[in-house]
Amino acid sequence: MGITVSGISKRFGGFTALGDIDLEAKPGEFLALLGPSGSGKTTLLRIIAGLEFPDAGTVAFDGVDVTNQPITDRGVGFVFQQYALFRHMTVADNVAFGLTVRKKRDRPAKAEIARRVEELLDLVHLKGLGRRYPAQLSGGQRQRVALARALAVEPRILLLDEPFGALDAKVRKDLRRWLRELHDRMGLTSIFVTHDQEEALELADRVVVMDHGKIEQIATPETIYNDPASAFVFDFVGESNRLPISVRGGTAHFGQHPLDLPPHEAADGEATLFFRPHDVEIVDDGAPALPAVVTLARPRGGATRIEASITGREAPLELDYKGDAPPRPGDRIGVRPLRARLFGVQ
Amino acid sequence: MSAPLASPAHRRATAESPIARIVLITVALAFLGVFLLLPLIAVFAEALQAGVQPFLDAVVEPDAIAAITLTLTVAAISVPLNIVFGIAAAWAITKFDFRGKGFLITLIDLPFSVSPVVAGLIYILLFGANGWFGGWLAAHDLQIVFAVPGIVIATIFVTFPFVARELIPLMQEQGRDDEEAALSLGASGWQTFWHVTLPNIRWGLLYGVLLCNARAMGEFGAVSVVSGHIRGETNTMPLHVEILYNEYNFVAAFAVASLLAGLALVTLVLKSVLEWRFDYHRGGAGH
What we know:
The structure holds 2 protein chains of 2 kinds. By secondary structure, chain A is of the alpha+beta class.
Protein backbone atom coordinates (compact mmCIF):
# COMPACT_ATOMS: atom_id res chain seq x y z
CA MET A 1 0.00 0.00 0.00
CA GLY A 2 1.47 3.34 -1.02
CA ILE A 3 1.67 6.28 1.34
CA THR A 4 1.56 9.86 0.11
CA VAL A 5 2.23 12.75 2.44
CA SER A 6 1.73 16.20 0.97
CA GLY A 7 2.30 19.62 2.46
CA ILE A 8 2.17 18.48 6.08
CA SER A 9 2.78 21.16 8.70
CA LYS A 10 2.51 20.82 12.45
CA ARG A 11 3.14 23.28 15.25
CA PHE A 12 3.21 22.66 18.98
CA GLY A 13 2.60 26.05 20.56
CA GLY A 14 5.36 28.25 19.17
CA PHE A 15 7.50 25.34 18.02
CA THR A 16 7.33 24.25 14.39
CA ALA A 17 7.65 20.48 14.48
CA LEU A 18 7.07 20.00 10.75
CA GLY A 19 7.12 22.56 7.97
CA ASP A 20 5.54 21.65 4.65
CA ILE A 21 6.62 18.03 4.33
CA ASP A 22 6.17 16.00 1.14
CA LEU A 23 6.96 12.32 1.15
CA GLU A 24 6.01 9.24 -0.77
CA ALA A 25 6.45 5.58 0.11
CA LYS A 26 5.86 3.17 -2.74
CA PRO A 27 4.02 -0.08 -2.09
CA GLY A 28 6.39 -2.59 -0.54
CA GLU A 29 9.00 0.01 0.28
CA PHE A 30 10.94 0.17 3.54
CA LEU A 31 11.62 3.79 4.50
CA ALA A 32 13.72 5.14 7.34
CA LEU A 33 13.09 8.54 8.89
CA LEU A 34 16.51 9.56 10.16
CA GLY A 35 17.35 12.64 12.14
CA PRO A 36 18.49 14.01 15.49
CA SER A 37 15.99 14.43 18.32
CA GLY A 38 13.69 17.36 17.67
CA SER A 39 13.93 16.92 13.90
CA GLY A 40 10.24 16.07 13.63
CA LYS A 41 10.66 12.47 12.52
CA THR A 42 8.50 10.96 15.25
CA THR A 43 5.80 13.60 14.75
CA LEU A 44 5.72 12.78 11.05
CA LEU A 45 5.37 9.06 11.80
CA ARG A 46 2.59 9.73 14.30
CA ILE A 47 0.75 11.87 11.76
CA ILE A 48 0.99 9.08 9.18
CA ALA A 49 -0.34 6.69 11.83
CA GLY A 50 -3.22 8.93 12.88
CA LEU A 51 -1.97 9.45 16.44
CA GLU A 52 -1.40 13.11 15.68
CA PHE A 53 -3.21 15.38 13.25
CA PRO A 54 -1.51 17.93 10.99
CA ASP A 55 -2.31 21.65 10.96
CA ALA A 56 -2.13 21.59 7.17
CA GLY A 57 -1.57 19.04 4.44
CA THR A 58 -2.89 15.58 3.68
CA VAL A 59 -2.02 11.93 4.19
CA ALA A 60 -3.25 9.39 1.65
CA PHE A 61 -3.02 5.60 1.55
CA ASP A 62 -3.17 4.26 -2.02
CA GLY A 63 -4.61 7.57 -3.13
CA VAL A 64 -7.39 7.59 -0.52
CA ASP A 65 -7.29 10.62 1.78
CA VAL A 66 -7.07 9.45 5.41
CA THR A 67 -5.99 12.77 6.94
CA ASN A 68 -8.98 12.99 9.27
CA GLN A 69 -9.29 9.32 10.03
CA PRO A 70 -8.33 8.31 13.57
CA ILE A 71 -5.78 5.54 14.02
CA THR A 72 -8.52 3.07 14.92
CA ASP A 73 -9.83 3.14 11.36
CA ARG A 74 -6.58 3.40 9.43
CA GLY A 75 -5.55 -0.22 9.72
CA VAL A 76 -1.88 0.47 10.32
CA GLY A 77 0.39 -1.51 12.58
CA PHE A 78 2.27 0.69 15.06
CA VAL A 79 5.24 -0.42 17.14
CA PHE A 80 6.41 1.70 20.06
CA GLN A 81 9.93 2.21 21.32
CA GLN A 82 8.98 1.04 24.79
CA TYR A 83 6.86 -1.79 23.34
CA ALA A 84 3.65 -0.63 25.09
CA LEU A 85 2.68 -4.20 25.85
CA PHE A 86 -0.35 -4.65 28.09
CA ARG A 87 1.40 -5.77 31.24
CA HIS A 88 -1.59 -7.45 32.86
CA MET A 89 -2.19 -9.70 29.85
CA THR A 90 -0.31 -12.80 28.80
CA VAL A 91 1.73 -12.70 25.62
CA ALA A 92 -1.01 -14.62 23.81
CA ASP A 93 -3.70 -12.19 25.00
CA ASN A 94 -1.55 -9.28 23.91
CA VAL A 95 -1.20 -10.70 20.43
CA ALA A 96 -4.90 -11.56 20.28
CA PHE A 97 -6.01 -8.11 21.46
CA GLY A 98 -6.62 -6.62 18.02
CA LEU A 99 -8.84 -9.56 17.13
CA THR A 100 -10.75 -9.87 20.41
CA VAL A 101 -11.80 -6.20 20.44
CA ARG A 102 -13.48 -6.53 17.05
CA LYS A 103 -17.23 -6.25 16.77
CA LYS A 104 -18.95 -9.57 17.07
CA ARG A 105 -19.68 -10.03 13.38
CA ASP A 106 -16.04 -9.38 12.36
CA ARG A 107 -14.51 -11.31 15.23
CA PRO A 108 -13.02 -14.69 14.43
CA ALA A 109 -14.08 -17.63 16.60
CA LYS A 110 -12.07 -18.30 19.76
CA ALA A 111 -10.34 -21.32 18.27
CA GLU A 112 -9.48 -19.36 15.16
CA ILE A 113 -7.99 -16.53 17.23
CA ALA A 114 -5.94 -19.05 19.22
CA ARG A 115 -4.69 -20.56 15.97
CA ARG A 116 -3.72 -17.14 14.58
CA VAL A 117 -1.89 -16.28 17.79
CA GLU A 118 0.10 -19.53 17.61
CA GLU A 119 0.95 -18.77 14.01
CA LEU A 120 2.13 -15.26 14.81
CA LEU A 121 4.17 -16.35 17.83
CA ASP A 122 5.79 -18.88 15.58
CA LEU A 123 6.51 -16.17 13.03
CA VAL A 124 8.29 -14.02 15.62
CA HIS A 125 10.16 -17.03 17.03
CA LEU A 126 8.33 -17.01 20.36
CA LYS A 127 6.58 -20.34 20.11
CA GLY A 128 5.60 -21.69 23.51
CA LEU A 129 5.88 -18.36 25.35
CA GLY A 130 2.21 -17.44 24.91
CA ARG A 131 1.35 -17.95 28.57
CA ARG A 132 4.11 -15.76 29.93
CA TYR A 133 3.63 -12.16 30.97
CA PRO A 134 5.58 -9.31 29.34
CA ALA A 135 7.58 -8.75 32.52
CA GLN A 136 8.96 -12.28 32.17
CA LEU A 137 10.47 -11.60 28.74
CA SER A 138 13.69 -9.96 27.61
CA GLY A 139 13.62 -6.65 25.75
CA GLY A 140 14.12 -8.27 22.36
CA GLN A 141 11.36 -10.77 23.04
CA ARG A 142 9.00 -8.01 24.15
CA GLN A 143 9.61 -6.07 20.98
CA ARG A 144 8.82 -9.17 18.95
CA VAL A 145 5.58 -9.64 20.88
CA ALA A 146 4.74 -6.02 20.06
CA LEU A 147 5.37 -6.78 16.39
CA ALA A 148 3.26 -9.93 16.46
CA ARG A 149 0.49 -7.94 18.13
CA ALA A 150 0.65 -5.25 15.44
CA LEU A 151 0.67 -7.86 12.66
CA ALA A 152 -2.31 -9.76 14.08
CA VAL A 153 -4.76 -7.31 12.55
CA GLU A 154 -3.11 -7.81 9.14
CA PRO A 155 -2.07 -4.23 8.49
CA ARG A 156 -0.60 -3.39 5.12
CA ILE A 157 1.38 -0.53 6.57
CA LEU A 158 3.78 -1.01 9.45
CA LEU A 159 5.05 2.03 11.35
CA LEU A 160 7.80 1.68 13.89
CA ASP A 161 8.95 4.38 16.31
CA GLU A 162 12.59 3.76 17.24
CA PRO A 163 11.82 0.05 17.43
CA PHE A 164 15.30 -0.98 18.52
CA GLY A 165 16.11 2.05 20.63
CA ALA A 166 15.77 0.31 23.99
CA LEU A 167 17.73 -2.81 23.05
CA ASP A 168 21.40 -3.62 23.37
CA ALA A 169 23.64 -3.67 20.32
CA LYS A 170 23.73 -7.39 19.60
CA VAL A 171 19.99 -7.97 19.94
CA ARG A 172 19.40 -4.87 17.88
CA LYS A 173 21.43 -6.19 14.97
CA ASP A 174 19.68 -9.58 14.89
CA LEU A 175 16.26 -8.04 15.21
CA ARG A 176 17.02 -5.58 12.44
CA ARG A 177 17.86 -8.30 9.92
CA TRP A 178 14.86 -10.31 10.97
CA LEU A 179 12.52 -7.32 10.62
CA ARG A 180 13.73 -6.71 7.08
CA GLU A 181 12.98 -10.34 6.18
CA LEU A 182 9.56 -10.09 7.73
CA HIS A 183 8.81 -6.91 5.81
CA ASP A 184 9.75 -8.54 2.50
CA ARG A 185 7.90 -11.76 3.20
CA MET A 186 4.64 -10.10 4.22
CA GLY A 187 4.64 -7.52 1.46
CA LEU A 188 4.31 -4.64 3.91
CA THR A 189 4.98 -0.99 3.34
CA SER A 190 7.03 0.06 6.35
CA ILE A 191 8.34 3.30 7.77
CA PHE A 192 10.56 3.38 10.80
CA VAL A 193 12.01 6.22 12.80
CA THR A 194 15.58 6.12 14.02
CA HIS A 195 18.39 8.40 15.09
CA ASP A 196 20.91 5.67 14.35
CA GLN A 197 22.33 6.27 10.87
CA GLU A 198 23.89 2.82 10.68
CA GLU A 199 20.48 1.28 11.27
CA ALA A 200 18.86 3.46 8.63
CA LEU A 201 21.53 2.78 6.01
CA GLU A 202 21.54 -0.95 6.63
CA LEU A 203 17.81 -1.55 6.73
CA ALA A 204 15.96 0.87 4.51
CA ASP A 205 15.32 0.99 0.77
CA ARG A 206 15.36 4.76 1.00
CA VAL A 207 16.39 7.04 3.82
CA VAL A 208 14.64 10.29 4.64
CA VAL A 209 17.06 12.57 6.47
CA MET A 210 15.29 15.19 8.56
CA ASP A 211 16.40 18.21 10.53
CA HIS A 212 14.42 21.01 12.19
CA GLY A 213 11.10 19.85 10.77
CA LYS A 214 12.38 19.77 7.19
CA ILE A 215 13.45 16.98 4.89
CA GLU A 216 17.10 17.42 3.97
CA GLN A 217 17.33 14.53 1.54
CA ILE A 218 15.38 11.47 0.41
CA ALA A 219 17.56 8.91 -1.33
CA THR A 220 18.93 5.38 -1.30
CA PRO A 221 21.49 4.63 1.40
CA GLU A 222 24.27 4.67 -1.21
CA THR A 223 23.34 8.13 -2.44
CA ILE A 224 22.87 9.46 1.08
CA TYR A 225 26.34 8.30 2.02
CA ASN A 226 28.20 9.02 -1.20
CA ASP A 227 26.38 12.07 -2.41
CA PRO A 228 24.93 13.97 0.55
CA ALA A 229 22.69 16.80 -0.55
CA SER A 230 23.59 19.18 2.24
CA ALA A 231 26.20 19.97 4.85
CA PHE A 232 23.82 18.63 7.48
CA VAL A 233 23.45 15.26 5.78
CA PHE A 234 27.21 14.96 5.24
CA ASP A 235 27.79 15.71 8.89
CA PHE A 236 25.00 13.57 10.28
CA VAL A 237 25.45 10.45 8.18
CA GLY A 238 28.78 8.69 8.40
CA GLU A 239 32.04 10.00 9.73
CA SER A 240 33.27 13.24 8.31
CA ASN A 241 35.80 16.00 8.71
CA ARG A 242 34.72 19.58 8.27
CA LEU A 243 37.05 22.40 7.49
CA PRO A 244 36.28 26.10 7.11
CA ILE A 245 37.85 27.30 3.87
CA SER A 246 37.65 30.20 1.48
CA VAL A 247 37.41 29.97 -2.28
CA ARG A 248 39.43 32.51 -4.25
CA GLY A 249 39.64 32.46 -8.02
CA GLY A 250 38.19 28.99 -8.21
CA THR A 251 40.75 27.53 -5.78
CA ALA A 252 39.99 26.54 -2.22
CA HIS A 253 42.28 27.81 0.50
CA PHE A 254 42.61 26.75 4.11
CA GLY A 255 44.19 29.82 5.62
CA GLN A 256 47.05 30.55 3.21
CA HIS A 257 47.31 26.97 1.94
CA PRO A 258 45.85 26.34 -1.47
CA LEU A 259 44.17 22.95 -1.65
CA ASP A 260 44.46 20.61 -4.56
CA LEU A 261 40.80 19.62 -4.66
CA PRO A 262 38.90 17.51 -7.14
CA PRO A 263 36.86 19.67 -9.56
CA HIS A 264 34.09 21.60 -7.87
CA GLU A 265 31.74 24.41 -8.75
CA ALA A 266 31.96 26.53 -5.65
CA ALA A 267 31.62 30.26 -6.07
CA ASP A 268 34.20 32.52 -4.48
CA GLY A 269 33.68 33.19 -0.79
CA GLU A 270 33.55 31.37 2.53
CA ALA A 271 32.61 27.68 2.47
CA THR A 272 32.88 24.49 4.45
CA LEU A 273 34.79 21.53 3.12
CA PHE A 274 33.60 18.03 4.05
CA PHE A 275 35.44 14.79 3.47
CA ARG A 276 35.27 11.25 4.83
CA PRO A 277 38.23 9.76 6.75
CA HIS A 278 38.78 7.13 4.06
CA ASP A 279 38.57 9.56 1.13
CA VAL A 280 42.02 11.04 1.65
CA GLU A 281 45.54 10.48 0.50
CA ILE A 282 48.28 10.93 3.04
CA VAL A 283 51.34 12.41 1.40
CA ASP A 284 54.69 13.68 2.59
CA ASP A 285 54.83 17.07 4.19
CA GLY A 286 55.52 19.84 1.69
CA ALA A 287 53.31 18.69 -1.17
CA PRO A 288 50.30 20.97 -1.98
CA ALA A 289 48.17 19.54 0.78
CA LEU A 290 47.00 20.33 4.28
CA PRO A 291 49.97 20.24 6.64
CA ALA A 292 49.14 18.29 9.76
CA VAL A 293 50.80 16.65 12.76
CA VAL A 294 49.84 13.11 13.71
CA THR A 295 48.63 12.93 17.30
CA LEU A 296 47.28 9.40 17.39
CA ALA A 297 47.54 6.28 15.27
CA ARG A 298 45.82 3.01 16.05
CA PRO A 299 44.65 0.03 14.02
CA ARG A 300 41.01 -0.05 13.15
CA GLY A 301 39.48 -2.63 10.87
CA GLY A 302 41.74 -3.07 7.83
CA ALA A 303 43.18 0.41 8.14
CA THR A 304 44.96 2.62 10.60
CA ARG A 305 42.90 5.39 12.14
CA ILE A 306 44.95 8.52 12.37
CA GLU A 307 44.14 11.66 14.23
CA ALA A 308 46.06 14.65 13.05
CA SER A 309 45.94 18.21 14.27
CA ILE A 310 46.26 21.16 11.98
CA THR A 311 46.87 24.73 12.97
CA GLY A 312 43.79 26.88 13.02
CA ARG A 313 41.41 24.04 13.85
CA GLU A 314 40.69 22.72 17.32
CA ALA A 315 39.30 19.26 16.66
CA PRO A 316 41.78 16.87 15.04
CA LEU A 317 41.15 15.46 11.58
CA GLU A 318 40.20 11.79 11.45
CA LEU A 319 41.88 9.91 8.66
CA ASP A 320 42.24 6.32 7.52
CA TYR A 321 45.58 5.08 6.26
CA LYS A 322 45.56 1.83 4.32
CA GLY A 323 49.24 1.32 3.50
CA ASP A 324 51.84 -0.73 5.31
CA ALA A 325 53.85 2.07 6.88
CA PRO A 326 51.42 4.20 8.86
CA PRO A 327 52.77 7.47 10.18
CA ARG A 328 53.47 7.66 13.87
CA PRO A 329 52.45 10.30 16.42
CA GLY A 330 54.59 13.36 15.94
CA ASP A 331 55.08 12.83 12.21
CA ARG A 332 54.35 15.73 9.92
CA ILE A 333 52.14 14.75 7.04
CA GLY A 334 50.22 16.30 4.16
CA VAL A 335 46.53 15.50 3.85
CA ARG A 336 44.97 15.57 0.39
CA PRO A 337 41.22 14.93 0.16
CA LEU A 338 40.44 12.71 -2.81
CA ARG A 339 36.71 13.13 -2.63
CA ALA A 340 35.29 16.13 -0.91
CA ARG A 341 32.25 18.36 -0.95
CA LEU A 342 32.04 22.08 -0.56
CA PHE A 343 28.98 23.65 0.96
CA GLY A 344 28.48 27.38 1.24
CA VAL A 345 28.40 28.79 4.78
CA GLN A 346 24.86 28.83 6.13
CA MET B 1 22.65 -3.43 48.95
CA SER B 2 21.91 -4.32 52.51
CA ALA B 3 25.45 -4.52 53.76
CA PRO B 4 25.63 -4.64 57.54
CA LEU B 5 26.60 -1.35 59.06
CA ALA B 6 28.57 -3.02 61.82
CA SER B 7 32.06 -2.42 60.54
CA PRO B 8 32.93 1.25 60.10
CA ALA B 9 34.49 0.49 56.73
CA HIS B 10 31.08 -0.40 55.36
CA ARG B 11 29.26 2.61 56.71
CA ARG B 12 27.59 4.60 53.98
CA ALA B 13 28.34 8.28 53.64
CA THR B 14 24.76 9.23 54.46
CA ALA B 15 24.55 7.11 57.60
CA GLU B 16 24.50 9.07 60.86
CA SER B 17 26.57 8.18 63.87
CA PRO B 18 24.98 5.59 66.19
CA ILE B 19 24.16 8.19 68.83
CA ALA B 20 22.38 10.45 66.35
CA ARG B 21 20.39 7.49 65.10
CA ILE B 22 19.31 6.44 68.58
CA VAL B 23 18.27 9.99 69.43
CA LEU B 24 16.30 10.42 66.20
CA ILE B 25 14.53 7.10 66.53
CA THR B 26 13.69 7.74 70.19
CA VAL B 27 12.25 11.18 69.45
CA ALA B 28 10.17 9.86 66.57
CA LEU B 29 8.84 6.91 68.56
CA ALA B 30 8.12 9.00 71.65
CA PHE B 31 6.24 11.53 69.57
CA LEU B 32 4.20 8.85 67.81
CA GLY B 33 3.50 7.13 71.12
CA VAL B 34 2.27 10.23 72.92
CA PHE B 35 0.29 11.80 70.10
CA LEU B 36 -1.02 8.79 68.18
CA LEU B 37 -0.77 5.50 69.99
CA LEU B 38 -1.76 6.67 73.45
CA PRO B 39 -4.99 8.37 72.33
CA LEU B 40 -5.90 5.30 70.28
CA ILE B 41 -5.46 3.07 73.31
CA ALA B 42 -7.40 5.59 75.41
CA VAL B 43 -10.37 5.36 73.04
CA PHE B 44 -10.62 1.61 73.41
CA ALA B 45 -9.90 1.74 77.17
CA GLU B 46 -12.65 4.30 77.76
CA ALA B 47 -15.09 2.37 75.59
CA LEU B 48 -14.56 -0.83 77.57
CA GLN B 49 -14.19 0.93 80.91
CA ALA B 50 -17.54 -0.31 82.23
CA GLY B 51 -17.20 -3.71 80.65
CA VAL B 52 -18.35 -5.31 77.42
CA GLN B 53 -22.11 -5.05 77.99
CA PRO B 54 -22.38 -1.23 78.16
CA PHE B 55 -20.16 -1.12 75.09
CA LEU B 56 -22.49 -3.41 73.15
CA ASP B 57 -25.57 -1.56 74.42
CA ALA B 58 -24.19 1.72 73.17
CA VAL B 59 -23.45 0.26 69.75
CA VAL B 60 -26.81 -1.46 69.15
CA GLU B 61 -28.95 1.31 70.57
CA PRO B 62 -31.38 2.59 67.79
CA ASP B 63 -29.79 6.03 67.41
CA ALA B 64 -26.37 4.44 67.10
CA ILE B 65 -27.64 1.96 64.55
CA ALA B 66 -29.22 4.83 62.62
CA ALA B 67 -25.92 6.74 62.70
CA ILE B 68 -23.97 3.72 61.52
CA THR B 69 -26.47 3.06 58.73
CA LEU B 70 -26.37 6.68 57.62
CA THR B 71 -22.58 6.73 57.59
CA LEU B 72 -22.47 3.56 55.52
CA THR B 73 -25.14 4.94 53.16
CA VAL B 74 -23.29 8.21 52.66
CA ALA B 75 -20.05 6.37 51.99
CA ALA B 76 -21.82 3.96 49.62
CA ILE B 77 -23.10 6.89 47.56
CA SER B 78 -20.18 9.31 47.69
CA VAL B 79 -17.31 6.86 47.18
CA PRO B 80 -18.57 5.39 43.86
CA LEU B 81 -19.38 8.89 42.60
CA ASN B 82 -15.88 10.06 43.49
CA ILE B 83 -14.41 7.03 41.74
CA VAL B 84 -16.16 8.13 38.56
CA PHE B 85 -15.27 11.81 39.01
CA GLY B 86 -11.71 11.00 40.02
CA ILE B 87 -11.05 8.75 37.04
CA ALA B 88 -12.65 11.25 34.69
CA ALA B 89 -10.56 14.11 36.04
CA ALA B 90 -7.32 12.12 36.04
CA TRP B 91 -8.04 10.84 32.54
CA ALA B 92 -8.72 14.33 31.22
CA ILE B 93 -5.60 15.75 32.83
CA THR B 94 -3.16 13.03 31.84
CA LYS B 95 -4.37 11.90 28.43
CA PHE B 96 -5.38 15.18 26.80
CA ASP B 97 -3.75 18.53 26.26
CA PHE B 98 -6.02 21.50 26.80
CA ARG B 99 -5.99 25.04 28.10
CA GLY B 100 -6.67 25.53 31.79
CA LYS B 101 -5.17 22.19 32.82
CA GLY B 102 -3.20 23.80 35.65
CA PHE B 103 -6.33 25.50 36.88
CA LEU B 104 -8.21 22.22 36.92
CA ILE B 105 -5.46 20.58 38.98
CA THR B 106 -5.62 23.48 41.45
CA LEU B 107 -9.37 23.14 41.61
CA ILE B 108 -9.10 19.46 42.47
CA ASP B 109 -6.93 20.45 45.45
CA LEU B 110 -9.44 23.00 46.68
CA PRO B 111 -11.23 20.67 49.12
CA PHE B 112 -7.85 19.98 50.78
CA SER B 113 -7.05 23.63 51.22
CA VAL B 114 -10.43 24.90 52.31
CA SER B 115 -11.70 24.31 55.83
CA PRO B 116 -14.48 21.68 55.88
CA VAL B 117 -16.67 24.08 57.84
CA VAL B 118 -16.47 26.55 54.97
CA ALA B 119 -17.36 23.75 52.57
CA GLY B 120 -20.46 23.03 54.65
CA LEU B 121 -21.42 26.69 54.80
CA ILE B 122 -21.17 26.95 51.00
CA TYR B 123 -23.95 24.40 50.68
CA ILE B 124 -26.08 26.14 53.29
CA LEU B 125 -25.63 29.30 51.27
CA LEU B 126 -26.64 27.53 48.07
CA PHE B 127 -29.39 25.19 49.20
CA GLY B 128 -30.48 26.51 52.62
CA ALA B 129 -33.91 28.03 53.23
CA ASN B 130 -32.50 31.52 52.58
CA GLY B 131 -29.95 30.33 50.05
CA TRP B 132 -29.74 30.96 46.31
CA PHE B 133 -31.75 27.90 45.35
CA GLY B 134 -33.61 27.64 48.66
CA GLY B 135 -36.89 29.10 47.39
CA TRP B 136 -36.97 26.92 44.29
CA LEU B 137 -36.18 23.81 46.31
CA ALA B 138 -38.88 24.60 48.86
CA ALA B 139 -41.40 25.20 46.08
CA HIS B 140 -40.65 21.75 44.71
CA ASP B 141 -40.65 20.18 48.14
CA LEU B 142 -37.01 19.13 47.89
CA GLN B 143 -34.83 19.16 50.96
CA ILE B 144 -31.06 19.15 50.63
CA VAL B 145 -29.58 20.74 53.72
CA PHE B 146 -30.46 19.19 57.08
CA ALA B 147 -31.14 15.99 55.13
CA VAL B 148 -29.27 13.08 53.62
CA PRO B 149 -28.62 14.71 50.18
CA GLY B 150 -26.78 17.60 51.87
CA ILE B 151 -24.61 15.20 53.85
CA VAL B 152 -23.79 13.27 50.68
CA ILE B 153 -22.93 16.43 48.74
CA ALA B 154 -20.72 17.78 51.54
CA THR B 155 -18.96 14.42 51.80
CA ILE B 156 -18.36 14.27 48.05
CA PHE B 157 -16.85 17.74 48.18
CA VAL B 158 -14.48 16.91 51.01
CA THR B 159 -13.38 13.54 49.61
CA PHE B 160 -13.11 14.51 45.95
CA PRO B 161 -9.29 14.84 45.74
CA PHE B 162 -8.37 11.39 47.06
CA VAL B 163 -8.99 9.30 43.94
CA ALA B 164 -7.91 11.97 41.44
CA ARG B 165 -4.71 12.85 43.32
CA GLU B 166 -3.75 9.20 43.54
CA LEU B 167 -4.35 8.56 39.84
CA ILE B 168 -2.86 11.66 38.22
CA PRO B 169 0.83 10.94 38.97
CA LEU B 170 0.33 7.25 38.22
CA MET B 171 -1.30 7.87 34.87
CA GLN B 172 1.26 10.54 34.04
CA GLU B 173 4.04 8.08 34.69
CA GLN B 174 2.42 5.42 32.53
CA GLY B 175 2.00 7.80 29.60
CA ARG B 176 -0.26 7.26 26.63
CA ASP B 177 1.58 4.49 24.81
CA ASP B 178 -0.63 1.65 26.02
CA GLU B 179 -3.81 3.50 25.07
CA GLU B 180 -2.39 4.46 21.69
CA ALA B 181 -1.36 0.86 21.09
CA ALA B 182 -4.88 -0.32 21.89
CA LEU B 183 -6.41 2.26 19.57
CA SER B 184 -4.00 1.31 16.78
CA LEU B 185 -5.24 -2.25 17.11
CA GLY B 186 -8.78 -1.10 16.46
CA ALA B 187 -10.12 -0.89 20.02
CA SER B 188 -12.82 1.69 20.75
CA GLY B 189 -12.32 4.31 23.43
CA TRP B 190 -14.45 2.35 25.88
CA GLN B 191 -12.64 -0.93 25.16
CA THR B 192 -9.34 0.84 25.62
CA PHE B 193 -10.43 2.17 28.99
CA TRP B 194 -11.88 -1.11 30.17
CA HIS B 195 -9.19 -3.51 28.94
CA VAL B 196 -6.07 -1.36 29.14
CA THR B 197 -6.33 1.76 31.29
CA LEU B 198 -8.34 0.37 34.19
CA PRO B 199 -6.16 -2.72 34.72
CA ASN B 200 -3.09 -0.48 34.61
CA ILE B 201 -4.37 1.78 37.37
CA ARG B 202 -6.28 -0.72 39.49
CA TRP B 203 -3.94 -0.78 42.51
CA GLY B 204 -3.58 2.97 42.61
CA LEU B 205 -7.33 3.29 42.22
CA LEU B 206 -8.00 0.89 45.10
CA TYR B 207 -5.59 2.83 47.26
CA GLY B 208 -7.37 6.10 46.46
CA VAL B 209 -10.76 4.51 47.10
CA LEU B 210 -9.61 3.27 50.48
CA LEU B 211 -8.45 6.71 51.60
CA CYS B 212 -11.58 8.28 50.14
CA ASN B 213 -13.76 5.83 52.05
CA ALA B 214 -11.96 6.40 55.34
CA ARG B 215 -12.45 10.12 55.01
CA ALA B 216 -16.06 9.79 53.87
CA MET B 217 -16.92 7.82 57.00
CA GLY B 218 -14.89 10.00 59.34
CA GLU B 219 -15.75 13.48 58.02
CA PHE B 220 -17.03 15.78 60.73
CA GLY B 221 -16.79 19.49 59.94
CA ALA B 222 -18.61 19.87 56.63
CA VAL B 223 -21.19 17.25 57.53
CA SER B 224 -21.79 18.87 60.92
CA VAL B 225 -22.77 22.14 59.26
CA VAL B 226 -25.26 20.68 56.77
CA SER B 227 -26.65 17.84 58.84
CA GLY B 228 -28.81 19.67 61.39
CA HIS B 229 -28.04 16.96 63.98
CA ILE B 230 -31.44 15.30 63.88
CA ARG B 231 -31.11 12.21 66.00
CA GLY B 232 -31.85 8.96 64.21
CA GLU B 233 -32.16 10.85 60.94
CA THR B 234 -29.22 13.04 59.98
CA ASN B 235 -26.60 12.00 62.51
CA THR B 236 -23.56 10.25 61.12
CA MET B 237 -21.21 8.34 63.39
CA PRO B 238 -18.81 11.22 64.07
CA LEU B 239 -21.75 13.52 64.86
CA HIS B 240 -23.31 10.89 67.07
CA VAL B 241 -20.06 10.62 69.02
CA GLU B 242 -20.03 14.35 69.58
CA ILE B 243 -23.62 14.44 70.84
CA LEU B 244 -23.07 11.56 73.23
CA TYR B 245 -19.92 13.22 74.52
CA ASN B 246 -21.68 16.53 75.07
CA GLU B 247 -24.29 14.63 77.07
CA TYR B 248 -21.52 13.28 79.31
CA ASN B 249 -22.31 9.78 78.08
CA PHE B 250 -18.62 8.90 77.86
CA VAL B 251 -18.87 5.14 77.60
CA ALA B 252 -21.31 5.33 74.69
CA ALA B 253 -19.34 8.12 73.00
CA PHE B 254 -16.12 6.15 73.18
CA ALA B 255 -17.86 2.94 72.16
CA VAL B 256 -19.01 4.49 68.87
CA ALA B 257 -15.66 6.28 68.55
CA SER B 258 -13.91 2.96 68.90
CA LEU B 259 -15.82 1.70 65.88
CA LEU B 260 -14.41 4.62 63.88
CA ALA B 261 -10.97 3.96 65.29
CA GLY B 262 -11.36 0.31 64.33
CA LEU B 263 -12.23 1.42 60.83
CA ALA B 264 -9.04 3.49 60.76
CA LEU B 265 -6.98 0.46 61.82
CA VAL B 266 -8.54 -1.73 59.15
CA THR B 267 -7.87 1.02 56.62
CA LEU B 268 -4.22 1.16 57.67
CA VAL B 269 -3.77 -2.57 57.30
CA LEU B 270 -5.45 -2.59 53.87
CA LYS B 271 -3.37 0.43 52.90
CA SER B 272 -0.15 -1.37 53.77
CA VAL B 273 -1.23 -4.43 51.81
CA LEU B 274 -2.12 -2.28 48.83
CA GLU B 275 1.13 -0.34 48.99
CA TRP B 276 3.00 -3.59 48.94
CA ARG B 277 1.06 -4.93 45.94
CA PHE B 278 1.21 -1.58 44.21
CA ASP B 279 5.01 -1.32 44.50
CA TYR B 280 5.35 -4.90 43.43
CA HIS B 281 3.33 -4.25 40.31
CA ARG B 282 5.03 -1.01 39.53
CA GLY B 283 8.46 -2.52 40.02
CA GLY B 284 7.72 -5.84 38.37
CA ALA B 285 6.07 -4.50 35.27
CA GLY B 286 8.72 -1.96 34.36
CA HIS B 287 10.88 -2.17 31.32
